[in-house]
Write a structure and sequence with these properties.
This protein is α+β, with helices and mostly antiparallel strands. It contains eight helices and 19 strands. Strands 1, 2, 3, 4, 7, 10, 11, 12, 13 and 14 form a ten-stranded mixed beta sheet that branches. A five-stranded mixed beta sheet has the order 15-17-18-19-16, with helices on one face. It has a two-stranded antiparallel sheet with strand order 5-6. Responsible for synthesis of pseudouridine from uracil-55 in the psi GC loop of transfer RNAs.
């Protein structure tokens, strides 16, 4: 394939690990350099952008973007994995039907900055070992809290109350590192019951939307799968950008420290894209904290020919 690479806007199927999805993509495109922008559990389907070749330099920046999920919480019992695939560990039958006002109030109180403890069945590493590896050995260890941001949390369906359980679907717009499984457990806890996440789909990851994604089956049927690739420029169009003068393009490609333009749209940006006159992304730059009025490379994207 073209070594400039690109991004595959993949819709990962349920029942497949993110690692296996990347492996399939490597085979389809005949490349060794590939990486996804945020793990999806095997039981979760949805948007999983996969970067190829030069675009792998953007993985950490695309991973940091907001994510949008549509999930379902089932209240009345919990599982060891916090989702429907786990073993039931505790039941708390519903004593009184949960009203939609009660559900909405809990969602409102969980909106904003909250703290979460990563679930034992997760890929977080502690002492060089992933938590799910400890969990499979029956070992539960202390996990540090992390702060995440829930930008928006809304109920999508009516609350379905049965004899022992209640459930409803919700949409969550959240920051990197948010565990929706743990959020579902917390929704139940705030209502006074055990709970778990019974279903989950990721509908958006940064600027990538579900309706623009392709499946593995669609890619494998294409005569030219590269037609499905998005350019690095399309992938970072949400990042503030400036166009450099022709005489500065070589300096950027050499990673030079340059004068910081007085441009309002990059004033508060942690980093921003520098483009040439052909609208090709050359590099990500950021303010130089040691040199007033200067900017320095954050990540080089293009290389000199």
């Amino acid at each position: 394939m073209d070594t400039t690479g690109g991004i595959v806007p993949l819709w990962k199927p349920r029942g497949m690990t993110s690692f296996d999805a990347v492996k399939r993509i490597r085979t389809i495109y005949g490349t060794k350099r590939a990486g996804h922008t945020g793990t999806l559990d095997p039981d979760v389907e949805g948007v999983l952008p996969i970067c190829l070749e030069r675009a792998t330099k953007l993985v950490e920046y695309l991973t940091a973007d907001k994510k949008v999920y549509e999930g379902e919480v089932t209240i009345g019992f919990s599982t060891d994995t916090e989702d429907a695939g786990g073993k039931v560990i505790k039941t708390t039958p519903i004593q009184k039907a949960i009203s939609e006002n009660e559900a909405d109030d809990v969602l409102l109180r969980l909106t904003g900055r909250i703290k979460q403890v990563p679930p034992m069945y997760s890929a977080v590493k502690i002492k060089g070992k992933k938590l799910y590896e400890y969990a499979r050995e029956g070992i539960e260890i202390e996990r540090p809290e992390r702060e995440v941001t829930i930008y928006k949390l809304e109920r999508l369906t009516a609350v379905k109350n049965t004899e022992d359980t209640a459930s409803f679907s919700f949409r969550a717009e959240c920051s990197k590192g948010t565990y929706i499984r743990t959020l579902a457990v917390e929704i139940g806890a705030r209502l006074g019951y055990e709970a778990h996440m019974s279903s989950l789909i990721r509908t958006s990851s940064g600027s990538f939307r579900g309706e623009s994604c392709v499946t593995l089956e669609e890619l494998e049927k294409m005569d030219d799968p590269e037609k499905a690739l998005l350019t690095v420029e399309e992938a970072v169009k949400h990042i503030p950008s400036i166009t450099v003068a022709r005489e500065d393009e070589l300096k950027v490609l050499q990673g030079a420290i340059l004068p910081l333009p007085d441009v309002q749209k990059i004033a508060d940006a942690p980093y921003f894209g520098l483009y040439n006159r052909k609208h090709e992304l050359l590099a990500l730059y950021k303010k130089d904290e040691k040199r007033a009025g200067k900017m320095k490379p954050e990540k080089m994207i293009r290389i000199m020919n």
